[in-house]
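re: ur question from yesterday

yeah so i grabbed the chain u mentioned. its 256 aa long if i counted rite. heres the sequnce exactly as i have it in my notes:
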Amino acid sequence: MHIPEHLIIQGDIRGFEHFMASSNDRLLPSVSIDTVIFSIIESKLNVLVLKISGTDYQMIPGGYVAKDEELDDAAYRILNERTGISNLFLEQFYTSGRVNRATDIRLKEILENSGYVMPEGNWFEQRFISVCYYALIDSSMVKPNSPSGFFEYRWLDPDSLPVLFFDHNMLINRAVERLRIDMDQKLVGFNLLNETFTMNELQSVYEAVFQNKFSRANFQRKMLSLDILERLDKLYTGGSHKAPYLYRFKQSQVGF
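ran it thru and got these C-alpha cells back, copy pasting raw so excuse formatting
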C-alpha cells in the first residue's frame, strides 16, 4: 500500500476523495508495487527511502497497478513518477503477501491529520499483495519528484535503517540478499557503471555490495570466467605498463 502524495497534502482532500471513488474502476484491487533502489555512495551500499516531511514516517517508493497494465510496466511507471528514473535494469525479486502486512495505524493518522476520515471497509486499508522489484543505480539518476514537498528523498545504510512503513524493512533485507545472488548472473551493475569500465571499478562495486574486500587476482579470474565481459583496448592514462584494460558487458547479456 502506498500514499498518493499529491492527493493528501493539506487542502486537496477533494482530490483524495476522487482518487478513492475512482480507484475501483482504474486499479487492481489489493495489488501494489514496491521498489528497492540501491546505489553506492562513498564506497558503501545505500538504499533510497522517502520520508514524509515533518514526520518520522519513511517508506520505499511504490504505487498501484492499473487494470490494463502489465506488472513490469507498472513498476517502471511508478518508479519514474516517484524518482524520474527510466530505462534501467529493474528486477522482480519477491512477492509479499502476509495477511497483516498493510496494517499500519500511522497511515490513518496521516490522512486524519490532513482532514480526511477513512470510511469503514475502504479498499485502501484492505490486505495488499505487493510485487517487489530492485535496481542498483547511480544516485545521480534520481530526480526527486515531490513538487508539494511532501516527500524528502534520503539515501540510507540498509544495515542501519529506522522502522519503515509496513514490511519495508523486511523487503529491503530480502532485496540485499537477492542483489548479492544476482551480481554474477543478472548484470545488475549495468545501471551503475559507465558503458566501459576498468576491472578495478567493477571490483569496487562488488566490494560495496558484499561489504568485503576481494583479492584483485582472484576477482579478475572469477569475472573473466563468467563470460559476461568484453575486453577492449587499454586505457592510456599513463605509461603503457600502468594502463588498465577497459571492459564492457557483452551486449548479448544485457537484458533490457
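noticed a couple things. The chain has two domains: 5-183, 193-253. also The longest strand covers residues 27-41.
anyway ttyl
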